[in-house]
């Protein structure tokens, strides 16, 4: 077993995948210096796949270990054609909450067509159709742009919120959220998302739309209890108002992000963000804690993802499934 860039080691049998193994070209990961991009790049490097890490100009030294950095300015529309030339696939993740996500999708679609990119995986969001959240609406529009331009050459991943978002606060002893503590969520493990993304980039789930969610519906109160049990020490929770959050953690964000996040928190307050879990047990057969143990339920997630071809046609002609973590 080998460890890659701080990630958990993968069994040697998983270092290579059969789907698309004949293609030795690189995979391009856009946004490779962010937490999601790093996780996807690490999953690919662990499988001995060459990775081009698309990063902002000047950020090349921050590219993940084992990747080849390439400068791409998504906002300015510079560098993507060179990055995609000769690639077998690309992972497109726009900057979080960016107001021109749809424009970026159009540019990515155009360049993918110009370079004959065989496969594009788009990082969307769970419930992009929820019009209460502006950044979800932009994700939905971007999905349509990419589907119309590239058809079944696009695979769309719609992950739920990450477990990892709560790990730091839990270890600090306090989960503080600007929405109801009783709102339900099916948070997913980022490492599981990265492995399903790697599968898709290497040829699995062509043309599919995949909802990636955790195996349990949990409220913040329940996640607090789970965290305390996993850590073996007290963890508390509290609700703050959106105004308090904007004056505190959100104070340094630009106005666009503050507006979009405030809308998201308001939506969460009226129903959380969840789907019916594909299963209710973790990979060890026992109860799955939200992101703290090593067991991520990956085998179950990937097995459910591989069953995409057996699931009925979803919106926009794509196959839809819910892959548990």
Give a quick set of tags describing it.
325 residues, alpha/beta, Rossmann fold, eight-stranded parallel sheet, two-stranded parallel sheet, 10 helices, globular, disordered N terminus
Q: What is the CATH superfamily?
A: NAD(P)-binding Rossmann-like Domain
Assigned CATH class: Alpha Beta
What's the story with the biggest beta sheet?
Answer: 8 strands, parallel
Distance between the termini: 22 Å
Q: At CATH's second level, what is the architecture?
A: 3-Layer(aba) Sandwich
Q: Tell me the CATH topology.
A: Rossmann fold
What's the total count of β strands? 12
Mean pLDDT: 84
Radius of gyration: 19 Å
Order of SSEs: EHEEHEHEHEHEEHEEHEHHHE
Arrangement of strands in the largest sheet: 3-2-1-4-5-6-9-12
Please report which band the strand proportion falls in: under 5%, 5-15%, 15-25%, 25-35%, 35-45% or over 45%: 15-25%
The number of domains: 1
User: What class, by secondary structure content?
Assistant: alpha/beta
Query: What characteristic shape results from the CA principal axes?
Result: globular
Tally of alpha and pi helices: 10
Share of helix, binned: 25-40%
- Poorly predicted sequence stretches spanning 5 or more consecutive residues: 1-15, 279-325
